[in-house]
Design goal:
Layout (H helix, E strand, L loop, with lengths): L6 H19 L3 H8 L3 H9 L6 H10 L5 H14 L14 H9 L2 E6 L10 H11 L5 H14 L1 H4 L6 E7 H5 L5 H14 L5 E6 L13 E5 L8 E4 L6 E3 L2 H17 L3 H14 L3
Parallel strand pairs: 1-2, 2-3
Antiparallel strand pairs: 1-4, 4-5, 5-6
Helix pairs in contact: 1-3, 1-5, 2-3, 4-5, 7-8, 11-13
Length: 285
């Protein structure tokens, strides 16, 4: 696969364009589904980028929308072809959160709030292994290893020499106090977190327990932003059996405002780094 082709992002862009064409035609998803003798849910999945789009799907939809400019049709057909190629993560087999990985791979910036654990992009291998084994106790060792490998590969966005991912992380103190694996492992993890926080494109802040109630008590979430203005920001909320992706401007705005409150209530960068270092020393006792 060409390095500049991200199938997940191509599906999103293609879906957005198909939705735009439908709306220009003044048709509902239900009306389109009736014309093509398919389910309304299929049209919705095509438009939100959660389903692979075949060139035949694009051709049929362009016919329904009466797209006369062949250049537009050809462009959409090429996007459909590109969207069916495989990203690097597909070499690891069935990954439950592959849609998220595709988005993260193409994102320019990522804002994360995590109340329970250190975020995956800042985890050591040993911490990741212990965390996955504890969180998914019925997972086979081979599957745990596969998940860890994927997590380590994802971290290449942080260490990339060109255009690294801009990462902003707000952690609850609980994520630092929860002993994953053992104390020695935790000390190593927190020292690594301090080290990574010194990268110019990585920001880490901590909300200590004594801050009391704050907007992040509802749980973990991430906000992804992309370099292309045509790609709308996405709020990602991880679930046990399914994940939630919010793309409506109003939803993204609400989570963005909540994140700003979290950043304001957290310790500043230097205070957070010292706070993490102090807890790391406690694990050495």
């Amino acid at each position: 696969m060409a390095s500049n082709v991200n199938p997940t992002v191509r599906r999103r862009r293609l879906g957005q364009e198909l939705r735009r064409l439908r709306e220009l035609k003044g048709m509902t998803a239900e009306e389109v589904a009736e014309r093509l003798l398919v389910s309304q849910s299929k049209i919705s999945r095509l438009e939100n980028g959660r389903r692979s789009i075949s060139q035949r799907d694009v051709r049929d939809l362009c016919n329904v929308y009466e797209v006369e400019d062949q250049r537009i049709v050809d462009s959409l057909m090429q996007m459909a072809k590109d969207s069916r190629q495989q990203g690097w993560w597909h070499t690891f087999g069935d990954i439950p959160y592959s849609v998220y990985i595709g988005l993260e791979t193409d994102a320019a910036s990522l804002r994360v709030y995590d109340p329970q654990v250190v975020p995956g992009l800042l985890q050591t291998r040993q911490y990741a292994e212990a965390l996955i084994a504890g969180a998914l106790p019925e997972t086979a060792p081979a599957d745990i290893d596969k998940r860890v490998q994927v997590r380590m590969r994802r971290q290449e966005r942080i260490t990339a020499p060109e255009n690294p991912l801009r990462l902003w992380t707000v952690l609850d103190e609980a994520a630092l106090r929860r002993v994953v694996g053992n104390k020695a492992l935790m000390r190593e993890q927190l020292e690594y977190l301090v080290e990574q926080s010194q990268l110019p494109h990585v920001t880490v802040q901590v909300i200590p327990f004594d801050m009391g109630a704050h907007p992040g008590l509802n749980g973990q979430y991430a906000i992804l932003e992309f370099p292309d203005a045509a790609d709308s920001s996405v709020v990602y909320i991880e679930g046990v059996t399914s994940d939630l992706y919010l793309e409506k401007a109003n939803d993204v705005q609400k989570y963005s405002v909540m994140y700003e409150h979290l950043r304001a209530q957290a310790l500043n960068v230097d205070q957070s780094r010292q706070f993490i270092a102090d807890i790391a020393k406690e694990y050495a006792r």
